[in-house]
Structure formats: structure tokens, C-alpha cells
Amino acid sequence: DPNRKPTNVELLQEVQELARSVGRPLAKQHEVNDILGL
Prior knowledge:
Elements: H1 8-21, H2 29-36
């Protein structure tokens, strides 16, 4: 739907569902920091 305007929370929920459906764990905060070099 090109007119769809999901909120950030909705986008995050979709990513969580997608990751779980393919057996991928979500990165923890410290893992994200390492990945991004923060």
C-alpha cells in the first residue's frame, strides 16, 4: 500500500516478527553499538 504510513513502533514490531519467523535473534544494545562502532 503506497499510502501506508506506519509508526516507528509498527515498523519495529514488523522487523521483530520477520526476524523471529526466519530464526534470527534481535541484536542486543551492546551488539548494535559494536556493529555501528559506537
